């Protein structure tokens, strides 16, 4: 017996980890700086760490109360009802729930290129088709409703990413609203705001309560520093409330994840520090990196370095792990996560030295 035909599916390519690179190169893991996966260089909130410790002896119980508490806290924060908050194991889990609730076999989704590979992966898992619209380097990675509509053909879901990964560009709220107005009634606009805390712009959540065709994704993996516990959520229209219980896995987020998320939400200072670190790191890279960069509203910067694979490989040997963006269709670019002052300086110094050597 064989699995079903998966030849049209692609494997998700994650950023390389410290232990993996250290083993491969025979280096001390402590000597490496990982700036490849847009993780929080400050780590999680101390309050979240304490909550994990405090509730570790309760993991034999299903997370019913903690799930409800976190849902209520998020609903209050965003001014929505609890039924509009869909908790999941990471933002990708929320993507799967939206796909389950929306797609019939053969329905098509429209995704940005370059963009987060899991949009298309999730659609294919649910027997949907995938089309793309360009977020073009030639146009400064600008995102507008008109550019998306040029490739729209009645697609069931249209995915937007703001801030966009890997470029850092944003789409204005007015453009999101225009897109929702000009697409079919049965098209859902999903705005992925995984990096939303790092942006100064308004959230598309402002559109969710007044419409039935806009949903927003958020995560605890970035600004909250909880990537390792896998916690994210979707914010959906009121009309979608009944669907969650029909499509989610039982106890969609773990006890530890929910307790950590609740504690992290209560530590606004940690998020503010994380955003400030990212802002300073971005500015340092704009000013000091000897490569073309683009303004980013995320916790990363895209840089044009020529041979991205070669540069990324040689930077690893110098102790800095960055993301080769060849898999995003940008073989000349690397993405550098915003690190601490020390980490950012090391990345810029090593990258500049390498670029000078290869000229």
UniProtKB/TrEMBL annotation:
Its cofactor is pyridoxal 5'-phosphate. This is Histidinol-phosphate aminotransferase. The modification N6-(pyridoxal phosphate)lysine is found at residue 222. It comes from Halalkalicoccus tibetensis. Residues 32-348 form the Aminotransferase class I/classII large domain. InterPro entries: Aminotrans_II_pyridoxalP_BS, Aminotransferase_I/II_large, HisP_aminotrans, HistidinolP_aminotransfase, PyrdxlP-dep_Trfase, PyrdxlP-dep_Trfase_major, PyrdxlP-dep_Trfase_small. Pfam families: Aminotran_1_2. Pathway: Amino-acid biosynthesis; L-histidine biosynthesis; L-histidine from 5-phospho-alpha-D-ribose 1-diphosphate: step 7/9. HAMAP family: HisC_aminotrans_2. Its EC number is 2.6.1.9. Belongs to the class-II pyridoxal-phosphate-dependent aminotransferase family. Histidinol-phosphate aminotransferase subfamily. The keyword Transcription does not apply. GO terms for biological process: L-histidine biosynthetic process. The keyword Transferase applies. One of its GO terms (molecular function) is histidinol-phosphate transaminase activity. It catalyses: L-histidinol phosphate + 2-oxoglutarate = 3-(imidazol-4-yl)-2-oxopropyl phosphate + L-glutamate. SUPFAM superfamilies: PLP-dependent transferases. Keywords: Amino-acid biosynthesis, Aminotransferase, Histidine biosynthesis, Pyridoxal phosphate, Transferase.
């Amino acid at each position: 017996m064989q699995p079903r035909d998966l030849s049209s599916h692609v494997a998700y390519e994650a950023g390389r980890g410290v232990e993996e690179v250290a083993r491969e190169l025979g280096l001390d893991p402590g000597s490496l700086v990982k700036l490849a996966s847009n993780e929080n260089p400050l780590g999680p909130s101390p309050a979240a760490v304490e909550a994990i410790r405090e509730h570790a002896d309760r993991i034999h119980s299903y997370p019913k109360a903690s799930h409800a508490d976190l849902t209520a806290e998020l609903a209050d924060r965003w001014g929505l009802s609890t039924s509009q908050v869909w908790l999941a194991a990471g933002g990708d889990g929320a993507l799967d729930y939206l796909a389950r609730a929306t797609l019939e076999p053969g329905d098509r989704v429209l995704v940005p290129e370059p963009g987060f590979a899991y949009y298309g992966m999730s659609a294919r898992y649910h027997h949907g088709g995938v089309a793309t619209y360009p977020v073009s380097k030639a146009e400064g990675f600008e995102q507008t409703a008109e550019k998306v509509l040029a490739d729209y053909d009645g697609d069931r879901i249209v995915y937007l990413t703001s801030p966009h990964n890997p470029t850092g560009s944003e789409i204005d709220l007015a453009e999101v609203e225009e897109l929702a107005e000009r697409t079919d009634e049965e098209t859902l606009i999903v705005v992925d705001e995984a990096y939303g805390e790092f942006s100064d712009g308004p959230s598309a959540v402002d559109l969710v309560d007044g419409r039935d065709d806009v949903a927003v994704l958020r995560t605890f993996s970035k600004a909250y520093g909880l990537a390792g516990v896998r916690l994210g959520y979707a914010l959906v229209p009121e009309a979608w409330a009944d669907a969650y219980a029909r499509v989610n896995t039982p106890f969609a987020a773990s006890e530890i994840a929910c307790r950590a998320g609740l504690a992290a939400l209560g530590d606004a200072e940690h998020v503010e520090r994380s955003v400030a670190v990212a802002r300073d790191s971005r500015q340092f890279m704009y000013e000091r990196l000897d490569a073309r960069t683009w303004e980013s509203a995320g916790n990363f910067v895209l840089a044009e370095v020529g041979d991205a694979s070669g540069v990324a490989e040689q930077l690893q040997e110098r102790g800095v792990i960055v993301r080769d963006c060849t898999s995003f269709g940008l073989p000349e670019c690397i993405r550098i996560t915003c690190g601490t002052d020390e980490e950012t300086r090391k990345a810029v110094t090593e990258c500049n030295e390498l670029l000078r050597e290869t000229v």
